Amino acid sequence: MSVESNWYQNAIFYQVYPRSFMDSNGDGYGDFQGLISRLDYIRGLGVDCIWLQPTYPSPLRDDGYDISDYKGVYAPFGTIQDFKRLVHEVHARGMRLISDLVINHCSSDHPWFQAARNDPSSKYFDYFVWSDNPKKYAEARIIFVDSQSSNWAYDEKVGKYYWHRFYPTQPDLNFDNPAVREEMKDVLRFWLDLGIDGFRADAVPYLYEREGTNGENLPETHAYLKELRKLMDEEYPGTILLCEANQWPRDVRAYFGDGDEFQLGFHFPLMPRVFMSIGKEDASSLVEILNATPAIPANCQWCTFLRNHDELTLEMVSEEDRQWMWNFYAPDPAMRMNLGIRRRLYPLMENDRRRVELAYSLIFTLPGSPVLYYGDEIGMGDDITQFDRNGVRTPMQWDATKNGGFSTADTTYLPAIRDGRYGYRSVNVAAQSDDPDSNLNRLKRMIEARRASEALGWGKLEWLTSGAPLPVLAYRRTTGGDTVIAVHNLTGESRPSELEAEDGVYQDLLDSGMAVTAESGKLRLTLGPRQFYWLRKVG
Ligand code: GLC
Predict the structure, then answer these.
(1) What is the mean pLDDT of residues 178-192?
(2) In terms of Cα–Cα distance, which of 47, 44, 48, 39 is closest to 85?
(3) Is the Cβ atom of 202 under 6 angstroms away from ligand 1?
(4) In ligand 1, which atom is closest to the CA atom of 65?
(5) How far apart are CA 44 and CA 130, in angstroms?
(6) What is the DSSP letter of 263?
(7) pLDDT value at position 410?
(8) pLDDT at res. 493
(9) Phi and psi, residue 134, nearest 5°
(10) Whose CA is nearest to atom 9 of ligand 1?
(11) Section 469-475 average pLDDT
(12) pLDDT score, position 1
């Protein structure tokens, strides 16, 4: 298998929320040109691929995940020509770009829904899922639990209910209708023709509804997703699909198919367990979930992450762990949302860099391609006074000038974080660029170290510690030519550690550069509070 064609299996992804990234024309709104002007910065982080969040025309009732035209761009971002230029500039820097594909639902402003609603005899009526009876599909859970009491909304004009897994302004499309299935294939072609490298496919578990099921991960859904992948393989070879399925590992496993569905899938259940491991100073839940994670086809990979644009989801933990997470990480009820926590990484960790770096270290050394969320590399804060999940989507903080250098406008789409410990005057890219000990530069060095090790990217995983609790977590990653032992002390005290290891000299790939020797099959070392090493066998 060539490394080049399977680049995504060992790649660093960077998630860009374009509305808040960089405004080039002073209208208070991020745009393509602004993003282009910051591509060197992104490349400088060591990023292989940008995940660009939705840039389609939209009334923004779910921040762009409510699309009113699948083949256009929201005017404040620029034009399709600008989008093409963006793709070109990304490629010119040796990076790739995937964008969000939201097929489960569109906006209620979409002409399809408008036509359906205005004329039930129109062909678009059957693009949506209608019912006289709002008790249908009663086993499907509600996702936005804070604001929704049903997955059905009544349409006065039509005199029927329509199905929506998210907000009522996002009617679900009817995948039983072959015309919808074809429309979506055309949408894929439209964007792939513009040269993008693939998609992060939004909310894929919910495409079909069937009575007596929870309407998630249905066989029909997998069959259709495989058709999309086939289309991509045949017509746009080398393009990729990343799956957003917030599900248990065995259910996400199905989205990899036999290597003929998604190449990539987010590992949702791992994410809260990284936070639990650090908060509880015990990594046993993390080991447990990885042990319960089935093997995936050779051409696939997990995507790991710490934060994204949504609430830190607690759907994939037990009720007891959810309460624990809320109490520990979201003591103020305003920090909670749906079944999750609407905060950013640094505030979650109380701005304690040791804990943040422990978290990064775990996702950089465990199997999977890491996805970084814009702004977390510098330690941005959140603004829980903002509506919905907007508090984790505030403008990128480039420098200490007005709006953190994001925009020259007086009013921006969302206000930049100005005050306090996370304000743009102190937390910004410019201030951190020249300081070797800044959050930014330390993270860059971690990324570099991860990229330098074949084993951390491709290696098999073996646990070197076991049992519960697990205050020290160690594991070995190995490929033919490279062995790295990653060891983490999750506690706030020094810990001696003795690990099974092949005799020889091991050297830290990270800043410490420390070397230790394993003798008689044992590697002995003492870790300081919340310290970690990536020990590569060098002799
Ligand atoms: C996904 C997106 C989220 C959006 C939802 C509905 O979960 O990440 O932001 O609200 O889908 O499209």
Answers:
(1) 98
(2) 39
(3) yes
(4) 12
(5) 49
(6) S
(7) 98
(8) 98
(9) -75, 5
(10) 310
(11) 98
(12) 39
- Provide the pLDDT for residue 2: 43
Q: Is the pLDDT of residue 307 over 50?
A: yes
Contact 100, 62 (CB under 8 A): no
Residue 183 CB partners (closer than 8 Å, separation 6+): 70, 127
Indicate if ligand 1 lies below 6 Å from the C-beta of 203: yes
Closest Cα partner for 283 from 464, 521, 498?
464
- What percent of the chain shows pLDDT beyond 90? 99
Q: Examine the residue annotation and report whether 202 is marked as an active-site residue of this protein.
A: yes
Contact 341, 314 (CB under 8 A): yes
Name the one residue in this structure whose structure tokens are 């639902």.
105
From the CB of 310, is ligand 1 less than 6 Å away? yes
Side chain identity at 43, as an amino acid letter?
Answer: R
Catalytic residue among 62, 155, 202, 209: 202
97 Cα to the center of ligand 1, angstroms: 19
Whole-number pLDDT of residue 40: 98
Q: Is 62 in the pocket of ligand 1 (CB under 6 A)?
A: yes
Q: Are 369 and 418 in contact (CB under 8 A)?
A: no
Whole-angstrom CA distances from 200 to 18, 30, 179, 371, 426 are 15, 20, 23, 12, 33
**Helices 284-291/270-280 angle, 10° precision:** 160
Shortest-distance Cα residue to atom 4 of ligand 1: 65
Residue 447, ligand 1, Cβ within 6 A: no
> What letter does residue 496 receive in the DSSP assignment?
E
Q: Cα(436) to centroid of ligand 1, in Å?
A: 36
Question: Is 498 assigned a catalytic role?
Answer: no
Residue 100, φ and ψ in degrees, nearest 5: -75, 135
Distance in angstroms (rounded) separating the CA atoms of residues 525 and 339: 40
Question: What pLDDT is stored for residue 5 in this prediction?
Answer: 79
Which of 6, 34, 1 has the alpha carbon at shortest distance from 20? 34
Cα–Cα distance for residue pair 361/442, rounded to 1 Å: 11
Q: How far is the CA of 312 from the centre of ligand 1 (A)?
A: 12
Establish whether residue 100 lines the binding site of ligand 1, counting it when its CB lies within 6 angstroms of any ligand atom. Answer: no
The three-class DSSP label of residue 487 is strand
Q: What is the pLDDT of residues 351-374, one digit of tens each?
A: 999 999 999 999 999 999 999 999
How far apart CA 209 and CA 205 sit, in angstroms, is 10
Q: Confidence band (pLDDT; 50, 70, 90) for 55?
A: very high
Using CA atoms, how far residue 133 sits from 52, 55, 130, 136, 281, in Å, is 38, 35, 9, 6, 50
Q: Is the CB of 65 under 6 A from ligand 1?
A: yes
203 Cα: distance to centroid of ligand 1 (angstroms): 7
* Amino acid identity, position 352: D
